[in-house]
Amino acid sequence: MRAQFVLSEIGVGLRRNLTMTFAVVVSVALSLALFGGSLLMSDQVNQMKGYWYDKVNVSIFFCNKSDATSDSNCAKGAVTAEQKKQILDDLNKMTTVVEKVTPETQDEAYKHYKEQFGDSPLASSLTPDQMQESYRIKLKKPEQYKIIASAFNGRDGVQSVQDQKNILDNLFGLLNGMNWAARAVMAMMLVVALMLIVNTVRVSAFSRRRETGIMRLVGASGFYIQAPFIMEAAVAGLIGGTVACGFLLIGRYFLIDHGLDLSHKLNLINFIGWDAVLTKLPLILATSLLMPALAAFFALRKYLKV
Known about the structure:
Shape: rod-shaped
Order of helices and strands: HHEHHEHEHEHHHHH
Mean pLDDT: 77
Structural class: alpha+beta
Distance between the termini: 22 Å
């Protein structure tokens, strides 16, 4: 009988404050969708880091004939065969740092450049002899770049030592910045949702103050009086959490698998799988249930003084 009364009161409360209940559902749905999206964004960035940092190379670029007049690092002229051999021997001795060394000739560098930038106006004016020979070095740990840079920068025949990780760090820094911006918006939306929940519960309690007063007079416990209001907020929050889960599932399906089909259009990016999305859904549902319930509980303690 008590359970039936509580459930009936929940239905009455939700219908009586339908507009505010709808506002709570929408604000909870949007804030938790942003919350889940920020968690997935973090997973995506971490997965991309693991994927790309494992593939980055350090490149030692050698001086060519044209660099001798235009680059101060190549003032002593183009690299010689002896200099390249000495550098390769030194790299092969660095077994604790270097995993693999891949030489790239001028013709190979020209071919790779044409493959990547063949449509640019500059590509048509370049010739193979203007390209630089290089050693592409795969490190055992990407953060050991400085060891290579300090060992070979400034050597005769070496034009520069470049680390691809620096380029990726800028990209991941941008992605992390966007993720923190999403979290800031999510935090503001959560505050708005909590304020709406508190106001909705107070309006509902005020509209039923006569019933709650009678319940106090007949000896009803504080929790028994609060339970319908708390469960109203929890149900509204749970509906919002379910909508947020739907947003994440639809977003993953539309953005990556179908619709925009980014998994095929951006096949160089290793996107997160469905398992990453599904593991976030229980957390979102639990948050959508507990957050409104706790907000209503603390609001009612002060408002009803029970």
